[in-house]
Amino acid sequence: MRAPRPAGGITRRQRFLRDRTLLLMTLPAVVLLLVFSYVPLLGNVVAFQEYDPYGAGVTGSPFVGTYNFERLFLDNRFWEVLVNTLVIFFTQLVLFFPIPVALALLLNSVLNDRVRAWVQGIIYLPHFFSWVLVVTVFQQMLGGAGLIAQQLRERGFGGFDLMTDPGFFKFLLTAQSVWKDAGWGVIVFLAALAAVNSELYEAAAVDGAGRWRRMWHVTLPALRPVIALLLVLRVGSALNLDFEQILLQRDQVGAGAAEVLDTYIWWTGVRTGDFGYATAAGIFKGVFSVLMVLLANKVAHLLGEQGVYAKQ
Amino acid sequence: MTAVLVDPQGVRETPLQRIDRTGRRPVWEEEPTRIGQGLKGLSLVAICLLVLGPLWVVLVTSLSDKKTITEAGGLVVWPGTITFEAYEALLSGGAVTRAALVSVGITVVGTLFSMAVSVLCAYGLSRPGSFAHRPLLMLLMVTMFFGAGLIPTYLLVTGIGLQDSYWSMILPSALSVFNILVLRAFFTGTAPELIESARIDGAGEWRILFTIVMPLSRAVVAVISLFYAVGYWSQWFNAMLYIQDSDKYPLQMILRQLVLQHQVPPGAMGQAVSSGALSSLSVQMAVMILALVPVAVMSPFVQKHFQKGMLIGAVKG
């Protein structure tokens, strides 16, 4: 019997035959991705067309060059929406981001295993709720007929409806995101904390560092790479706010405050039928997001962190 | 995209974890002060109440009779008379029952479909040095960075005639590349000696996958199944985009209509609500409970798996 030849020594054909079962296994997923991710990627060509939804479709509509982009960039409404998106994003970033870190530090300091498991189980829960459910829960608590308004009315105070207040909207969104996902965000930081070598704590304690100094000099440096990585990813998806969350409340709050890039694309495309214009906005969003990731990663490198991908 | 990957090797038990298992603190750590302990306990309770409080109110109101709701002036915090009539009205046929069945169907079929395709793909790409596995991985990962955008996807789905089909709620978001990568990381971590010895004993790839790799990866398969199932159960946007026929609405659509848009449900239940025989508030709350019960019941079973095995992996290149 001959010994099997090393992998490098066999021809492509032989490797293909050897791995044909494995390739067959990947086939359904590849087909799905080609149809539902790559074909639409090509479908972005609509941005350069005068799209005719009833007759010609994507293949037959006439090309109009950069006409749709010109319309987009000359449209005041588009820039307003973009600014609004960024304002909501930065509000969320500043008010949301520290909370999982703080929660993780708090949980990590709980020595009793069972208490910790219970608290974790409870704060993870809302992550699995749909946005419809989260928004309805908030509606029942903070809305005009909600619990807080109801309690206030019983005590003789006036009306109160945070759900329809355009000025409050960005904070409302942040509160909803915190309620839904802050507990879930804890997992990453807890994992990073569990990986800290406890001899570092011991050494710091021997050197006379108290509880807070140990947190400052041991715990937080251990979290730094994770925080940097998550920030980069977050900034990269700046224009990708939780679409369902905002769309669900768009009617209540009004398009003035609640319109973000995604809902704008949905409205101008699906609702008013201006497909070329909406696709152009979608392309703008995609390009902007990639640029933001590259930029944020650059900043992370400058700060001495690894970011998403390592320095070349 | 969250940057959480399940670590194939599992997290090592750190010394700190060993300490709390025995319930003792390390000698170098100071005794906690009474005030500190009290504040910590208080904040933990407050955090849990913020999550559970609203759910409690929703549950109690859904179970209250009309008189209790009227006396409370709306939402009920302290339970009075308990009744199941809202649930009986919802589940005795009609729009809500049908929507719940649609949601269950989509969740079951969709999860099985997604898991089958994902597990096969992940295993097919898990062998180092296999034919074309690098280009195929690239093909997968490109979709994580370059989304196609809403409009082209919409045009495709409607263009291939999926409008008003249950498949429009399954196929467009059937695969999560992220989930496939997590599964693949686990499969790659399965001991190569086991696979090698199975191959010597004459097992083919299918057999190795189902009798060796899958049983060893039960934890991650459970977690990923939950992720997919929750995705299907929570899905509202695809339904809103592609489903016009209200007979095919999933539960999330009904929930939005009833609570956010204050629409009265059609049929006998709607009459009972508008004639005042049934409290509309308890009906709304009961629909909310229906929408949250499956995930609230499922997640604790899977929780122990993701509590111990999550680690930063970010985007692997």
What layout of secondary structure does this protein have?
The complex is a heterodimer of chains A (312) and B (317).
Chain A lengths: L11 H7 L1 H24 L13 H4 L6 H7 L2 H21 L1 H11 L4 H12 L6 H12 L4 H8 L14 H26 L3 H9 L4 H26 L6 H11 L1 H4 L2 H11 L3 H28 L10
Chain B lengths: L3 E3 L8 H8 L11 H30 L2 H7 L12 H7 L3 H30 L8 H13 L4 H10 L17 H13 L2 H9 L4 H12 L1 H17 L2 H6 L8 H10 L7 H7 L5 H29 L1 E3 L5
Antiparallel strand pairs in B: 1-2
Helix pairs in contact in B: 2-15, 4-15, 5-8, 5-11, 5-13, 8-11, 9-10, 11-15, 13-15
Task: Provide keyphrases for this structure.
heterodimer, A: 312 residues, mainly alpha, 71% helix, B: mainly alpha, MetI-like fold, 66% helix, disordered C terminus, ABC transporter permease (chain B), MetI-like (chain B), cell membrane (chain B), MetI-like_sf (chain B)
> Overall 3D geometry of chain B?
globular
Count of helical segments of chain B?
15
List SSEs of chain A in N-to-C order. Answer: HHHHHHHHHHHHHHHH
Structural class of chain B: mainly alpha
Gyration radius of chain A, to the nearest Å?
26 Å
| Shape designation of chain A | globular
What is the number of E strands of chain A? Answer: 0
Strand element count of chain B: 2
Oligomeric status of the shown chains?
heterodimer
Mean pLDDT of chain A: 85
Percentage of residues in DSSP E strands of chain A: under 5%
Give an account of the 3D structure.
The complex is a heterodimer of chains A (312) and B (317). Chain A has 312 residues and is mostly helical. Chain A has 16 helices and no strands. The model of chain A has no long low-confidence stretch (mean pLDDT 85). With 317 residues, chain B is an all-alpha fold. Chain B contains 15 helices and two strands. Chain B has a two-stranded antiparallel ribbon with strand order 1-2. In chain B, helix 9 packs antiparallel against helix 10. Chain B is globular and about 75 Å long. Chain B starts with a strand and ends in a 5-residue tail after the last strand. The N terminus and C terminus of chain B are likely disordered. The chains are: A mainly alpha (312), B mainly alpha (317). The interface between A and B is large, with 111 and 108 residues. Chain B: It is found in: Cell membrane. Chain B: Keywords: Cell membrane, Membrane, Transmembrane, Transmembrane helix, Transport.
